[in-house]
């Protein structure tokens, strides 16, 4: 088993006033050659957007972009004529493929939005752009894994053009779960702590810490307090 630890306070920090973003991996003005990616997981941004503010229309190409709202309402518009609002419990995916433009705004004028912006390199180039979102029952992740993303359109959650599986769990203090890697010969898992404290492979993790694990079939997670986790299984080879 191989591991890498990214403590919360080692992330890139970009505060633009209307946007406060913490970058786990190199992004925009934050560049760390040792923090470029975890396999095909390229971007993990922990974003807080001020009331009524947001990202104006901008382009993307050949990237799988996943948004996971944590608090508030985020309004999406794109060049495929999709207009939608995503909120906590929703998962949004945008397959940029041959190219799209989109905007993301805090829909509310009186509260901030917090969400995770995640980019994954696709396993196919120049696909037809695609948008999707689903609303999940967050109770289904209590003391168990809830799949929120996979490579398969017929599976639970959203799907992307990559052999990746994302899960979320909400563990009560003292509870343990064993994660089994879908593709142990090629995939690793990046665990991101949303809240609480957990131990994996003897490593204690705290809020907003990231922990990558690969070259293993399984690993165990134990919650040291009530803990919310996001697990992103991705191919390690670009």
UniProtKB/TrEMBL annotation:
Keyword vocabulary terms for this entry: Iron, Metal-binding
Annotated GO MF terms: metal ion binding
Entry-linked Pfam families: Pirin, Pirin_C_2
Cited CDD domains: cupin_Yhhw_N
Domain (Pirin N-terminal): residue spans on this chain: 13-120
Chain positions recorded as Fe cation binding sites: 58, 60, 102, 104
Location of the Quercetin 2,3-dioxygenase C-terminal cupin domain: 148-234
Protein family: Belongs to the pirin family.
Entry protein name: Pirin family protein
């Amino acid at each position: 088993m191989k591991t890498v630890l990214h403590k919360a306070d080692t992330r890139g920090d970009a505060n633009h006033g209307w946007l406060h973003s913490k970058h786990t991996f190199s992004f925009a003005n934050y560049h760390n050659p040792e923090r470029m990616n975890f396999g095909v997981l390229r971007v993990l941004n922990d974003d807080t957007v001020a009331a009524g503010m947001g990202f104006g229309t901008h382009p993307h190409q050949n990237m799988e972009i996943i948004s996971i709202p944590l608090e508030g309402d985020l309004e999406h518009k794109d060049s495929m004529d999709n207009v939608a609002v995503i909120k906590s419990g929703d998962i949004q995916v945008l397959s940029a493929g041959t190219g799209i433009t989109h905007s993301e705004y805090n829909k509310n004028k009186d509260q901030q939005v917090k969400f995770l912006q995640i980019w994954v390199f696709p396993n196919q180039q120049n696909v037809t752009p695609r948008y999707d979102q689903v609303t999940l029952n967050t109770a289904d992740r209590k003391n168990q894994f809830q799949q929120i993303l996979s490579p398969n359109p017929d599976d639970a959650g959203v799907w992307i053009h990559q052999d990746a599986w994302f899960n979320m769990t909400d563990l009560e203090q003292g509870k343990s779960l064993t994660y089994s890697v879908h593709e142990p010969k090629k995939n690793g898992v990046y665990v991101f702590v949303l809240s609480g404290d957990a131990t994996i492979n003897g490593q204690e993790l705290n809020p907003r810490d990231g922990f990558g694990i690969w070259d293993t079939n399984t690993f165990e997670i134990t919650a040291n307090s009530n803990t919310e986790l996001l697990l992103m299984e991705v191919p390690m080879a670009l």
